[in-house]
């Protein structure tokens, strides 16, 4: 029974959840109803806030298979609870056999595998599922995804489309003909409507949801309490504040919903044509599409309403909605393995692997190219929220909660305040009972102390700093869709950068070419655009091997392809729709050189006559294109020169990949040396290859041939050398980050040596730093996985040194010089393949490599995400800066992802910089640090405000007095709100500094700061309260008291000639109240100034003009009414007259209080504790280095304390990477020595243990 009660869904995935079954219990429900009535609805609120309690309070446990309600808990670190009701899907009056076939297959997640022969399937399913006669399927919906009960798995599972477990062969064989109307109707019942619905909630619904927030409920409770105590003005002020806050919140939430709704509504109801099984074409609404439908892509393009795989024709697509990159992409039909010469029928279709053949939902098809009679068709693979766009929208609608220490500590701090309030609550009751106060007053006063301790304005105050930071970021062109992450950016201590378009210029310039003839390199050539080369295979490859297309007459495509094509100066012509319609096939794209480049345009006297007999036209038609694949790192085309019988295959891509696919005898012997020379200088190198195809290969055969059959046995033609210049600002920005002790890492899809060269050029790797290349090899032929360690040559070495595995290692790296190496800085570099092998087979090495890994080359998009996760696992706060195209996953996963995109807000990342420059990274970190420090300042100030007011009220309760209504109003509105909203306005400090702000409130320096100020404030307030009673003029105040000797003064008499009975009831007016009120007013302002710190994270507070002016006005006003009383003001604030001498005494108390508070906060704290807390690691090493204070005479005791504090912190570093760095400093085997190999142990694969074996 226990096993049945708990299941796990989405196992191993990001949204993995535990499922518990429950059935409704009537008796439990009756008890809960009674409890709700008895608690006045408060129990209902608690159950509304806590779904786990709600289900457990009203239901009893049941088997998941038969339950009515499911309780879900996420298995991540947040352990969040959700509940969902089980629903039933009725499949109507269909014969049981046929119905069960559909039901079981769908519930198994394989509905889409239905073949045309339903009768045979039904018979098989009848035997397999003869026990199931139900015509209803049980399911629940969570976060817009339906989970159906699966009898085979004995668990709930979501409906999968054609994107999982379907081979490329079956896409053509089983799904290319379309569905019958009956099959379509059944699938629609199961898959539902194909739409991504973002319902904009009504204002009323949003209002109810917002008002039921625990914070507003607490405010409502406070307002009711204050009203019963006749604190009408303050209650009204809080109501107005709450209304403004709720209205603002409703407006922003609704605006976001409307924006998201508008973004996804583009494809909601488009009319599409689908092919049915009987070859008829039916026009339906896009909302009726189901997986398995064959959709006809219209000639004039469309916005895709689903994810579909192309099975005939070619499309040019703009995917900027998904990737943020507006370069059009060519999509070709999925290779059909069944008709390939070299079949690969077992390959499973995957939208990620086959993305060059997949049209994604929300992307715009600009143009199509097609066969006559065989239209451009695509098989629908995913619909609704299962599509790539749907998943993106789900991630926006249901974001993961932001786990940040500040917020966790804030809740902890609030709990502490609640505990303090509890003490005050008990004290008030005991004190009031002892003084025989009536029950009504005891209840109101004891509850009132709770509302004082937990400040109602806290959330608004905490948000202010983030809102101001967001506004400042917008001014410098950084847009933010997740404001809470601004604070987290203040903690970043490592930033990953994409290379191309981020660190380097987006466009590549052609530096030159180096052709190969007879397996030997020719001299490098600068220009390709000349008569000598115009008919060479090398130029033909440059002219044809690309994915360029003309859109509205303008050549567009990949920037690298554009540069290559522009360098040869050829002309590209595409067939028009009319021309294509005349022929029974796709008219090929044709490229030809301009006439002036052809030899016959300038005939010489000694030329052979045949040249003049040749036709003047020299054209090459691109017959078939195999698009560039980042997994394969190459692209190829099949082309034919006009008039030639045989076709040509051309290929370009990463040199090391191309060389492996060429005949060995055509590759130069010095291939690796030449390549290394170029890559070390930071050039982007692309290799070209060619071969003549057999004459038996006809046009039709080429259309169906696999790329593997084409991409082999090629002739190596040479290299294209592209120059990828560093952006002007890159070195300066990286230097700023290094000075601030922020590690920088390069993650790129480019060649490793090029990446290392760029890393050296931009200062990511310093000239004397060592680079260790980790080359990991997977297990093969019974051998375990291994890592070979090579030391990359430094730039000071000879340029003619041999390849990576050479013996030319700096002399310093001899066996006995490991200590020198540890003292010098070293960096690890690896490629994507090695990274994957290390992740799988060497888990215990991953943290060590993360500590010093700087260059990660040839990384696929998902590997970039894995790298960010690996860095986060050793407690780094990771930033990611990329162009948004291949970095979507990493940008989302990082603590602070910033996309360099021209779009105002990219859905790919929390931050988007409008200017494509990495200078936005230090700006973001500076603003993040400023916002984080502002949050600390505000939180500390609000905590002190609560405690000061709490203590004022507690002192006055001891004499059965309290603060007056207008006194509360003056403190809370005039002082607190003004100070909170202006102290948050400090802009960020102009440069990044080496220190980092603490990540949470529970840290030594901050706790000391708060506690020391609490002690100071309580001390001086108590001193004033008790000392006033010791004054010779003191007496228990009554309406006719005359401590000021102003009996004859009309001024003072008139100020007290109002309702004496009211004064007697409330006992507000007395000498203690006046003293406590004045001292506490100044204490709020003193604490505000003490906490408003500037350097090193924010501009000094004197540059925050609004704050300075507000504080000066409040100081002057409070000082004025204290020293020179105004009758009308005293009357409103219920202040009594005290002798002038006592006013001066209060002023002295306040001045001493200010001096002590500022001294403790700004000198003792900053000079001692601040340095201990803020001293952080340098590139992973944890060392305590402190600058010598200006004054030399630091006493022995102070030095001892400081060294003890240093010792404590040095022993136990908090972050894993710091702890690891300490361990590695004393590890004799680390870093690995040159020319050594690390092997994975075969016995304990689970924990990935490894041993180091030195190869002699």
From TrEMBL:
This is Polyamine-transporting ATPase 13A3 isoform X1. It comes from Erinaceus europaeus (Western European hedgehog). It comes from the Eukaryota. It is found in: Membrane. Residues 176-226 form the Cation-transporting P-type ATPase N-terminal domain. InterPro entries: ATPase_P-typ_cation-transptr_N, ATPase_P-typ_cyto_dom_N, ATPase_P-typ_P_site, ATPase_P-typ_TM_dom_sf, ATPase_P-typ_transduc_dom_A_sf, ATPase_P-type_domA, HAD-like_sf, HAD_sf. Residues 13-150 form the P5B-type ATPase N-terminal domain. Its main location: membrane. Belongs to the cation transport ATPase (P-type) (TC 3.A.3) family. Type V subfamily. Coiled coil: none annotated. Residues 272-396 form the P-type ATPase A domain. Keywords: ATP-binding, Magnesium, Membrane, Metal-binding, Nucleotide-binding, Translocase, Transmembrane, Transmembrane helix. It is a multi-pass membrane protein. The lineage of its organism: Eukaryota, Metazoa, Chordata, Craniata, Vertebrata. Signal peptide: none annotated. The chain crosses the membrane at residues 29-50, 232-253, 410-429, 449-469, 936-960, 966-989, 1001-1028, 1074-1092, 1104-1124, 1144-1169.
């Amino acid at each position: 029974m226990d096993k049945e009660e708990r299941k796990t869904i989405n196992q191993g995935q990001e949204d993995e959840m535990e499922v518990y079954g429950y059935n409704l219990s009537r008796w439990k429900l009756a008890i809960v109803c009674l409890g709700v009535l008895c608690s006045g609805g408060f129990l209902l609120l608690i159950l509304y806030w806590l779904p786990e309690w709600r289900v457990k309070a009203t239901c009893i446990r049941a088997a998941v298979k038969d339950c009515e309600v499911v309780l879900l808990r996420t298995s991540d670190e947040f352990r969040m609870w959700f509940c969902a009701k089980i629903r039933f899907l009725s499949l109507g009056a269909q014969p049981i056999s046929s119905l069960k076939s559909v039901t079981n297959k769908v519930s198994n997640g394989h509905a889409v595998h239905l073949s045309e022969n339903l009768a045979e399937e039904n018979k098989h399913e009848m035997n397999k599922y003869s026990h199931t006669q139900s015509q209803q399927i049980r399911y629940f919906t969570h976060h817009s995804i339906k989970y159906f009960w699966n009898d085979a798995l004995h668990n709930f599972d979501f409906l999968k489309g054609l994107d999982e477990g379907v081979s490329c062969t079956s896409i053509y064989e089983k799904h290319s003909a379309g569905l019958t109307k009956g099959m379509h109707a059944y699938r629609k019942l199961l898959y539902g409507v194909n739409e991504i619905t973002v319902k904009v909630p009504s204002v009323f619904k949003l209002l109810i949801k917002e008002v039921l927030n625990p914070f507003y409920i607490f405010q409502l409770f406070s307002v009711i309490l204050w009203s019963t105590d006749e604190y009408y003005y303050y209650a009204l002020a809080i109501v107005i504040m709450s209304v403004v806050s709720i209205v603002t919140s409703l407006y922003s939430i609704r605006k976001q919903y409307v924006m998201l709704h508008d973004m996804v509504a583009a494809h909601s109801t488009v009319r599409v044509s689908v092919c049915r099984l009987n070859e008829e074409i039916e026009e339906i609404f896009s909302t009726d599409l189901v997986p398995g439908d064959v959709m006809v892509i219209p000639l004039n393009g469309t916005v895709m309403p689903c994810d579909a795989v192309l099975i005939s024709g070619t499309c040019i697509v703009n995917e900027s909605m998904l990737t943020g990159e507006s370069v059009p992409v060519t999509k070709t039909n999925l290779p059909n393995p069944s008709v390939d010469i070299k079949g690969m029928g077992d390959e499973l279709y995957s939208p990620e692997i086959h993305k060059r053949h997949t049209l994604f939902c929300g992307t715009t098809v600009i143009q199509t190219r097609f066969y006559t009679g065989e239209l451009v068709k695509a098989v629908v693979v995913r619909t609704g929220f299962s599509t790539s766009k749907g998943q993106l929208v789900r991630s926006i609608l249901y974001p993961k909660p932001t786990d940040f220490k500040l917020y966790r500590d804030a809740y902890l701090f609030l709990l502490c305040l609640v505990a303090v309030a509890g003490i005050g609550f008990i004290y008030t009751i005991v004190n009031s009972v002892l003084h025989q106060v009536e029950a009504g007053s005891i209840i109101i006063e004891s509850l009132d102390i709770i509302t004082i301790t937990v400040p109602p304005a806290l959330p608004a105050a905490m948000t202010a700093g983030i809102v101001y930071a967001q506004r400042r970021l917008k001014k410098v062109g950084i847009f933010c869709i997740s404001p809470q992450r601004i604070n987290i950016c203040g903690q970043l201590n490592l930033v990953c950068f994409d290379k191309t378009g981020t660190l380097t210029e987006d466009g590549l310039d052609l530096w030159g070419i180096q052709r190969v003839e007879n397996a030997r390199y020719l001299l490098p050539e600068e220009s390709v655009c000349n008569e000598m080369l115009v008919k060479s295979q090398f130029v033909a490859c440059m002219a044809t091997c690309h994915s360029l297309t003309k859109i509205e007459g303008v050549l567009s495509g990949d920037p690298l392809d554009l540069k290559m094509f522009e360098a040869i100066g050829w002309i590209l012509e595409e067939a028009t729709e009319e021309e294509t319609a005349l022929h029974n096939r796709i008219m090929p794209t044709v490229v030809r050189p301009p006439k002036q480049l052809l030899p016959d345009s300038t005939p010489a006297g000694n030329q052979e006559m045949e040249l003049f007999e040749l036709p003047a036209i020299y054209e090459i038609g691109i017959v078939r294109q195999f698009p560039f694949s980042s997994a394969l790192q190459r692209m190829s085309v099949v082309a034919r020169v006009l008039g030639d019988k045989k076709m040509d295959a051309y290929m370009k891509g990463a040199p090391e990949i191309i060389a492996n696919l060429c005949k060995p005898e055509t590759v130069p012997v010095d291939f690796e040396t030449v390549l290394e020379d170029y890559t070390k200088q930071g050039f982007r190198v692309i290799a070209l290859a060619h071969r003549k195809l057999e004459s038996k290969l006809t046009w039709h055969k080429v259309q169906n041939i696999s790329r593997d059959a084409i991409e082999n046995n090629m002739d190596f033609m040479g290299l294209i050398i592209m120059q990828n210049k560093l952006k002007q600002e890159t070195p300066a920005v990286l230097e700023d980050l290094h000075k601030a002790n922020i590690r920088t890492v390069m993650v790129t899809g480019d060649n490793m040596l090029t990446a290392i060269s760029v890393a050296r050029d931009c200062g990511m790797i310093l000239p004397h730093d060592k680079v260790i290349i980790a080359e990991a090899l997977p297990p093969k032929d019974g051998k375990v996985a291994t890592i070979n360690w090579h030391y990359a040559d430094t730039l000071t070495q000879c340029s003619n040194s041999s390849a990576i595995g050479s013996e030319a290692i700096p002399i310093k790296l001899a066996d006995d010089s490991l200590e020198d190496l540890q003292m010098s800085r070293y960096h690890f570099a690896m490629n994507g393949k090695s990274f994957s092998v290390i992740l799988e087979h060497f888990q215990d090495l991953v943290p060590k490599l993360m500590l010093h890994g700087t260059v990660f080359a040839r990384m696929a998009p998902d590997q970039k995400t894995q790298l960010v996760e690996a860095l986060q696992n050793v407690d780094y706060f990771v930033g990611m800066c990329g162009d948004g195209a291949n970095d979507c996953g990493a940008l989302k996963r990082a603590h602070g992802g910033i996309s360099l995109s021209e779009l105002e807000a990219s859905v790919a990342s929390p931050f988007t910089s409008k200017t494509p420059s990495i200078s936005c990274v230090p700006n973001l970190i500076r603003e993040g640090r400023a916002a984080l420090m502002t949050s600390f300042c505000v939180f500390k100030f609000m905590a002190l405000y609560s405690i000061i007011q709490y203590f004022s009220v507690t002192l006055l309760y001891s004499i059965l007095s309290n603060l007056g209504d207008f006194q509360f109003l003056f403190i809370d509105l005039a002082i607190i709100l003004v100070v909170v909203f202006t102290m948050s306005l400090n802009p960020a400090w102009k440069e990044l500094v080496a220190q980092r702000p603490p990540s949470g409130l529970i840290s030594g320096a901050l706790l000391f700061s708060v506690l020391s100020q609490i002690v100071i404030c309580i001390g001086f307030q108590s001193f004033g309260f008790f000392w006033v009673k010791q004054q010779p003029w003191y007496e228990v105040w009554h309406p006719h008291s005359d401590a000021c000797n102003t009996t004859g003064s009309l001024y003072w008499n008139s100020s007290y000639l109002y309702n004496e009975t009211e004064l007697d009831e409330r006992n507000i007016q007395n000498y203690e109240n006046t003293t406590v009120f004045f001292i506490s007013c100044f204490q709020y302002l003193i604490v505000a100034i003490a906490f408003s710190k500037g350097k090193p994270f924010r501009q000094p507070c004197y540059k925050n003009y609004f704050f300075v002016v507000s504080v000066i006005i409040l100081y002057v006003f409070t000082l004025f009414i204290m020293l020179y009383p105004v009758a009308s003001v005293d009357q409103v604030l219920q202040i009594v007259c005290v002798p002038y001498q006592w006013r001066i005494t209060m002023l002295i108390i306040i001045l001493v209080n200010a001096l002590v508070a500022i001294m403790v906060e700004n000198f003792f704290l900053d000079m001692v504790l601040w340095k201990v807390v803020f001293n952080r690691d340098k590139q992973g090493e944890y060392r305590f280095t402190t600058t010598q204070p200006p004054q030399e005479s630091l006493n022995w005791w102070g030095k001892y304390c400081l060294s003890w504090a240093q010792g404590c912190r040095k022993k136990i570093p908090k972050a894993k990477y710091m702890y690891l760095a300490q361990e590695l400093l004393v590890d004799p085997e680390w870093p690995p020595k040159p020319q050594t190999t690390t092997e994975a142990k075969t016995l304990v694969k689970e924990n990935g243990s490894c041993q180091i074996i030195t190869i002699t």
